[in-house]
Amino acid sequence: MTASSPARRPTGRDVAQLAGVSQATVSLVFSGGEAGHRVSAATRERVLEAARGLGYRPQAAGRQLRLGRSGMAMLAVPNLQGPFFGRVLAGVHEEAARHGLDVVVSSGWSAATLAEAATSTRFDGLLVCSPDDSQLGALPPGTPVVFLDADPAAAGGAPTIELDLAGGMAAAVAHLTALGHRRLGRLRSTHSAYTFRVRQAAFERATAGLEVLEHGVSLNRGESAARQAALALLSRPDRPHAVVCDDDVVASGLYQAAADLGLSIPGDVSVVGIDNISVAAMLTPPLTTVDLPGERLGSAGIAALAAVLNGTPAELVPPLATSLIVRSSTRASA
C-alpha cells in the first residue's frame, strides 16, 4: 500500500479547460493592467468563476516579475476588533478575488506606518478606512490609495467613498420623534475622526428645537466606557426616555447600564444604535439601528483601487445609502 500523493495545485491550464477558453485568455484575465481589459466581461467572469471553483491563484512571484507588482493591497482600519470593520473586510476580500488581489489588514496604524507601506514594494496600493485625525499624514506623491468613510478634503484628491451617515442619523432621530420623544439622550463618541463629526453635525441638525442630553464616550475603551457613560446619562433626574448611540457597541453598554439601574428597554428608555453589526439582532430586545453597508463599502473600495492600479479613472461613487432597521428597542413615548 503506497501513501497517496498530495493534491496537485490547479494550474492555468486547468482553469482554461474548465472555462472553455485558451490558456492565453486565462493569462490575460490575471495579467492586470490593460491586458486584462482585452477580454470581454462575460468571458472574464467565466474564467474567474472557474478559478474560484478550482481554488486557483496565479503565482505571485511570477506576476510580480511580469508586472512589477506584488498582487497585495493593504487595508488599514482603526481597530480590527471593531465589529463593523469585519463587515468591511468581508466585502474587501470578496471583491479583491475578482481583481486578482490579496489583502493584508493593518490595525492601529499611524501616519508613519502608511507612509512606510506606500514606499514598500510589498503592497501595490492602500485602502484606508475610517481614519482618525492622528492617522492622516502626507503620503508619497503617486501613492495608489483609496479612502473609505473619510474626509474627501483630507484625501489629497485620492478617490474617497463615503457612507450617507447624515441620512442615517436623520432617520434615527425622525423615528424617535415620530414616536413622540422630545427629550433625547445621546452617547457621543469623543474619537477625533471625520466619521463621528459627520454624525454629530447631522444629529444637531435633526434635533434642532428638541431638548438634548449628551455624554461623551471613548470608543477605544469599549463596552465598559460605554456602560459608565450610560450610567451617568440614565442616572440624571431628568433622564431621557430615548437615546441615540454612536455605534452598536456603545448601545450594548447602555443595555448593561439600564439593567444595572433596573430600567427596561424600551419600557423606560428607547435605544437606537448605528452600524447594524451582528450583535444588534441578538440583544434583548433586538436593537433598532442604522445599517451601515460595510460590505458594499469594502467592495466599492477595492474596485476603485483596482481601477487606480490599472491606470483607469476610478468611477465616482455617490455616498452609499444607509437604512434604519426598526426592531423592538424603541416604543412610543409614554
UniProtKB/TrEMBL annotation:
Keyword Transcription regulation appears in the UniProt entry: yes
Chain ranges of the HTH lacI-type domain: 10-67
InterPro entries in alphabetical order: HTH_LacI, LacI/GalR-like_sensor, Lambda_DNA-bd_dom_sf, Peripla_BP_I
SUPFAM superfamilies for the chain: lambda repressor-like DNA-binding domains, Periplasmic binding protein-like I
Entry superkingdom: Bacteria
UniProt keyword annotations, A-Z: DNA-binding, Transcription, Transcription regulation
Lineage start: Bacteria, Bacillati, Actinomycetota, Actinomycetes, Kitasatosporales
SMART domains named among the record's database cross-references: HTH_LACI (SM00354)
Protein name: LacI family transcriptional regulator
Gene Ontology molecular function, alphabetical: DNA-binding transcription factor activity; transcription cis-regulatory region binding
Any single Pfam family the record assigns to this protein: LacI
